[in-house]
Write a structure and sequence with these properties.
The chain is built from 12 helices and 8 strands. By secondary structure, the chain is of the alpha/beta class. Helix 6 links the parallel strand 5 and strand 6.
């Protein structure tokens, strides 16, 4: 089970809907990061100067830069992060414009994104979204360290379609959404990769204990495949997320490896 949950949950407390103040979010992350299921701290680029004022000498944060600035300003923001020894830049997350054709927006974003920067690009549920995934996957196939990002604020059918489309393209994804969705998204991802199971039905399940038991029954190969696809799940604060991780850990665990 440890491989399934390792560094899975990212802390998005600074982002909507929480908008937690820095002096609350950062100490909470420091404390929660002792759990092996906790991953990176998400920080809007415009908040990075404030973040620096709250760092302590002992900090060494794995940081995701959320590009709430123009893409042309991303290199400058990355330079500022790299110059701060108390953080380790992990990746950049940026969103395509919601009202734009997603395929065209992806092409423009990929052309302007700094070369070699690990990035997850949020694809909206707008026309051209599948073609946008194709463009991101093609760039990844040519060596760019890219993945897709998806916000869980729509119906289960949309989330199922997105997860399945990324599985078909072998395109790593990050998701952001409420903690209650974490177990079902994780199980649905495993099913999408294996091509086994009703992904949309799984996303609609409310029997958390049953979902946790199904996660515990995944084989080692299925676990690795699921985590290659779903690299992180960002939540608006880690308190409830830790309880959810504990619930999954307590489920009966399969020792099968094949």
């Amino acid at each position: 089970m440890s491989a399934l949950l390792a560094r899975l949950v990212d802390d998005a407390a600074l982002l909507p809907p929480g908008h937690a103040p820095m002096d609350e979010a950062l100490p909470a992350y420091r404390e929660a990061a002792q759990d092996p299921g906790v991953g990176r701290f998400l920080c809007p680029a415009s908040w990075f100067p404030q973040l620096r004022t709250h760092l302590v000498p002992e900090d060494l944060l794995d940081l995701v830069l959320v590009a709430d600035i123009g893409i042309d300003e991303v290199p400058k923001a990355l330079d500022a992060m790299r110059a701060e020894p108390r953080v380790r830049p992990a990746s950049v997350r940026l969103a395509l414009p919601e009202d734009a054709d997603q395929a065209r927006a992806a092409a423009v974003t990929l052309a302007r994104l700094p070369s070699g920067v690990p990035a997850h690009i949020e694809v909206r549920r707008s026309p051209g979204w599948r073609d946008a995934l194709d463009r991101i996957a093609a760039a990844r196939a040519h060596g760019a360290p890219l993945g897709a990002d998806f916000r869980l604020d729509g119906p289960a059918s949309a989330t199922a379609a997105f997860i399945s489309a990324c599985a078909e393209r072998d395109l790593p994804i990050t998701c952001s959404g409420p903690v209650r969705s974490l177990p079902t998204v994780l199980l649905a991802t495993a099913q999408a990769v294996a091509g086994d199971g009703d992904v949309q039905r799984t996303l609609g399940r409310r029997d958390v204990t049953g979902v946790a038991a199904d996660l515990g029954s995944l084989t080692g190969d299925a676990t690795q495949a699921a985590r290659r696809l779903l690299t992180a799940f960002a939540v608006p604060g880690l308190g409830t997320a830790l309880s959810t991780l504990d619930l999954i850990r307590k489920a009966p665990f399969s020792t099968r490896v094949g």
